[in-house]
Amino acid sequence: MIASPSSPLTASAFSLNLALLTLSLLAPAGVALLNTGLGRSRSAAQSLLGSLVMMATAVLFFALIGATLADGSTGAGHIATLSGKPWNWAGTGTWIMRGIETAPSRAQLAALFEFVALALAVLVPWGAGADRLQLAAGAACAALLAAFIFPFFAHWVWGGGWLAQLGANFALGVGFLDVGGAASVHVVGGLSALAVIWIAGPRRGKFPKEGLSTAMPGHNAVYILFGCLVALVGWLAFNMAGAVLWLDAGPSALPLTAINTILSAAAALAATFTITRVRFGKPDASLCANGWLAGLVTSSACASLVSPGGAIFTGLVAGAVTPLLVEFLELAVSLDDPSGAISVHAASGLWGLIAAGIFASKSGQLLAQFIGVATLLGLVLPVVYFLFALLNRLLPFRVDPDGERIGMDLHELGGGAYPEFVVHRDDSYR
């Protein structure tokens, strides 16, 4: 069963988890580099500065509002009784995190875990809106995610909420499992990215009137690939921290979590490398990076729950599906997703959640995972889209055409990321 945020931790477990969570901040750093490299050169500075702004906005709004709703250690929570069963739907924490310094050790670490998770989640829609999403609009989206959307779902999963109660109320395994944030971070972030793409629309020139798709490759493969290496270190730490925090895993169980994380990413990369080499004659660096990240996302759901063979299998599936889904969404659905957020984060996160149910030893766990997946698709996505569409009426997401033409760096920051180089305009703007 998932550990309660109010249950005590030993001093050694506390120190270990604190160190892991500190190291896990490399995960959003890696994703920020990936997002920047996958965008255009004339928007690189805005992208990287935007990553800092998104994270800063998110942690501030979470501390002011969201932590109250996500809290699972103070009080019984807001309870609704349906069919004689208690359904915990929101936390009852203090405002502005008052008293956190005297809270139980696990509750303190849970709050830090949620800060890191949120910092990673808000970068997903920011990358999907690259080259046309205004900085102020991105910050407003991050504020909404941090204040309301993420806290509710985090409470349902990590704070003793109704998804976590599926095991106690209906004997569905141990309740919905999301040890490393595959649902709360990656699927929520990926669905938010889908809403941003729908609302903002494609970049100018991406889909000409002839119905074809114009290739707009990322501008810096070094950022992209180095971001993958940085993200791996953060992912290893975050997955292990989640295992300690939510599963009460001891030190002896952590090497397997780390091994499975690496195996999942490696298998995903191998699958994407092979598919792109067969399809295009040469491997595609950007798609391989997406495959690597898809394997890491999948591991967020099941690295602590599967065998090494299971980790390889889940990674292979994620890596095989990612390039095909990226191509399908672009060519068949006309979705302009520069960072591949929908395929990498939403789809791979959903697959990882289902795989966790498949490989779980407890009866009913797969059904609990499907209920969580249905909640994400049937409730979270419509709510996110509605809130973002309303926000777009107040603060338009998309930059004006002239700003998109000259680049987000010049338009929003007054200077480019590479002032010593001449940045040429695209043929699509002639």
Overview of this protein structure:
The chain is an all-alpha fold. It has a single domain (14-75, 108-418), classed as Orthogonal Bundle (Ammonium transporter fold), CATH 1.10.3430.10. Helices cover 65% and strands 3% of the residues. It has 16 helices and two strands. The chain has helices at residues 11-23, 26-38, 44-70, 105-121, 123-128, 135-158, 166-170, 182-200, 221-247, 254-280, 285-302, 308-331, 341-359, 365-394, 401-406, 408-413; strands at 78-82, 85-90. Strands 1-2 form a two-stranded antiparallel ribbon. Helix 13 runs antiparallel to helix 14 (365-394). The N and C termini lie far apart (60 Å). The model has no long low-confidence stretch (mean pLDDT 92).
Helix and strand sequence? HHHEEHHHHHHHHHHHHH
For the largest beta-sheet, the strand count, sense and barrel status come to:
2 strands, antiparallel
Number of DSSP strand runs: 2
Q: What is the oligomer described by this structure?
A: single chain
Helix fraction? 55-70%
**Secondary-structure arrangement, i.e. CATH architecture:** Orthogonal Bundle
Distance between the termini: 60 Å
Radius of gyration: 21 Å
CATH topology (fold) name: Ammonium transporter fold
Determine the mean pLDDT: 92
CATH classification class: Mainly Alpha
CATH superfamily placement: Ammonium transporter AmtB like domains
Unreliable stretches, pLDDT < 50, 5 or more residues?
none
Strands across the major sheet, in which order? 1-2
Tally of separate domains: 1
- H/I helix tally: 16
Supply the helix-strand structural class: mainly alpha
The dominant shape is globular
